Amino acid sequence: MATITPDIAPAADPSTAKQPTTKRDYPGALVVVEGIDGSGKSTQLYLLKRWLEIGGYRIHFTEWNSSPLVKSATRRGKQRRLLTPTTFSLLHAADFADRCERQIMPLLHGGYLVLADRYIYTAFARDAARGCSPHWLRNLYGFAPAPDITFYFRAPLDVAVNRIVAGRPKLKYYEAGMDLGISLDRSESFRIFQERILNNYDQMVETDHFVLMDGTVRVNKLQKLMRQIVSEKIALQQFAPKKK
Amino acid sequence: MRSSKNTLARVPPNGRPAKQRRAHAAVETPPRFYGTPLPGVRPEELSGTLVVIEGTDGSGRSTQISLLTEWLESQGFAVQTMGLRRSYLVGEDIDALLAENAVTRMTLALMYSTDFFDQLERRILPALRSGLIVLADRYIFTLIARAAVRGIGRDYLHGIYETALRPDLTFWLNVRPEIAFDREFKKSQTISYWESGRDMSLSNDLFQSFIRYQSMIKREFEYLSKRHGFLELDGESSVSAVNRVLRKRIASHLGIRSTQYKPSHALSHLWR
């Protein structure tokens, strides 16, 4: 049986946590963006996608938490606030697995350039901020293919939090990390939760080879840089429209 | 494969008598969790007992659990049960996924683990904190075996469940696949898609597919039995004989003297 899942021996020491599998047996490529809410990552990935789309490249865009299969469970859990750090994490992992097995992997094997708005590092940063063990999380997502480029959009906490709070009438319960019982005030809870996530992201910059992007730089300037990095690191002609 | 690094590691055969367990608690009792306990759980406050019954469909698990529940209640013990796909959070979603046959193996494995941890955290741990006896109609071992025969790494699977609670007693009702087939067919006049592993394209013949799949599962259980110290029982003996052995082991664990039991009228039809 063909397998996309290597046998994973859990790391002996949590500090030497396992890296995503780097074995590539597919012609496709994977570019992901990561960062806290309000860091500007989605805008930048959208612009990258438009650039490639307009150029006629073989691309597919995928985002976190979008699979219909586990949507009802996620909704039920969130509405009734039934989720614990573990079930919250597992449900998102199931959702990701569905996308991974039915979209990302087939597309990578089919020679597509896959663009992902958030990837496994979102789970590492966010679920660890909720109290899940980083070692357990690394193992949980061990089946995920390693990205070719991981852009990490970093904006100062205040800038990111203000962007989100200004644009939204009310922060949602889990989004604000209210389940952690840090603070009864949603904005305050959100801020502290995002700070923990930001710290967790920062710790992965070196170990997971993030390409650091300054989220305070002007949008078009940052996009220019992003396109340049993609062109350098990925053989784009491989995904270009075939000439007849 | 069986790396010593893995925290969900081998344990000595469990089921020592309750008194002895307490006397030597610090030295002899294996920790209640395989690895890091679940976030926010203090193992020392779990005073109840977790008894797991594993075995394939047609091994007589549910029958034994009904009988054990009645016996324990007659002895004055409060019982809580758990099983697969019984969580409020995703139980019905898994039923729907299975009905569609469109789900892939990793998603299914993770949905089952969500189902497991939802029951564990929201029903089983509270029950154990209150000193109840939890009878589990299957546990992480079935989930590991099913995913492992579909090619998902055993260490990966053990890693997911390393935050699970280690059972006090794990019984394995072992039956040959042929016997399980007879029993299942008699019960429902057909063989289920998943119990015959039809997603694995083993054979177009349902009987062959069922036998091959159940044999693979059985081999996985033989491995798990060694690794986790199962108490293996002959699931092909009579219901009353299996029940007698179960009562004896559980009684000795709980410190119950009398293991005499005869099912009430309501359950007498199970007593074969």
How are the secondary structure elements laid out?
The complex is a heterodimer of chains A (244) and B (272).
Chain A: E1 29-34, H1 41-54, E2 59-63, H2 71-79, H3 85-109, E3 113-117, H4 120-129, H5 134-140, E4 149-154, H6 157-167, H7 186-207, E5 210-214, H8 219-233
Parallel strand pairs in A: 1-3, 1-4, 2-3, 4-5
Chain B: H1 18-23, E1 49-54, H2 61-74, E2 79-83, H3 91-100, H4 105-129, E3 133-137, H5 140-149, H6 154-160, E4 169-174, H7 177-188, H8 206-228, E5 231-234, H9 239-254
Parallel strand pairs in B: 1-3, 1-4, 2-3, 4-5
CATH class descriptor name of chain A: Alpha Beta
The number of distinct helices of chain A, counting runs of at least 4 residues, comes to 8
Spatially, the strands of the biggest sheet of chain A line up as: 2-3-1-4-5
How many H/I helical runs of chain B? 9
Measured by DSSP, the beta-strand proportion of chain A falls in 5-15%
Determine the N-to-C terminus distance of chain A.
37 Å
Please describe what this structure looks like.
- The complex is a heterodimer of chains A (244) and B (272).
- Chain A has 244 residues and is an alpha/beta fold.
- In chain A, 46% of the residues lie in helices and 11% in strands.
- Chain A is built from eight helices and five strands, in the order E-H-E-H-H-E-H-H-E-H-H-E-H.
- Chain A has helices at residues 41-54, 71-79, 85-109, 120-129, 134-140, 157-167, 186-207, 219-233, and strands at residues 29-34, 59-63, 113-117, 149-154, 210-214.
- Chain A is globular, with a radius of gyration of 18 Å.
- The relative contact order of chain A is 0.20.
- Mean pLDDT of chain A is 88; it is low at 1-17.
- Chain B has 272 residues and is an alpha/beta fold.
- Chain B has a domain at 18-175 and 234-259: Rossmann fold, CATH 3.40.50.
- Helices cover 45% and strands 10% of the residues of chain B.
- Chain B has helices spanning 18-23, 61-74, 91-100, 105-129, 140-149, 154-160, 177-188, 206-228, 239-254; strands at residues 49-54, 79-83, 133-137, 169-174, 231-234.
- Chain B has a five-stranded parallel β-sheet with strand order 2-3-1-4-5, with helices on both faces.
- In chain B, helix 2 packs across helix 9 (239-254) and helix 5 (140-149) packs across helix 8.
- Residues 1-5 and 10-27 of chain B have low confidence and may be disordered.
- At the A-B interface, helix 2, helix 3 and helix 5 of A face helix 4 and helix 6 of B.
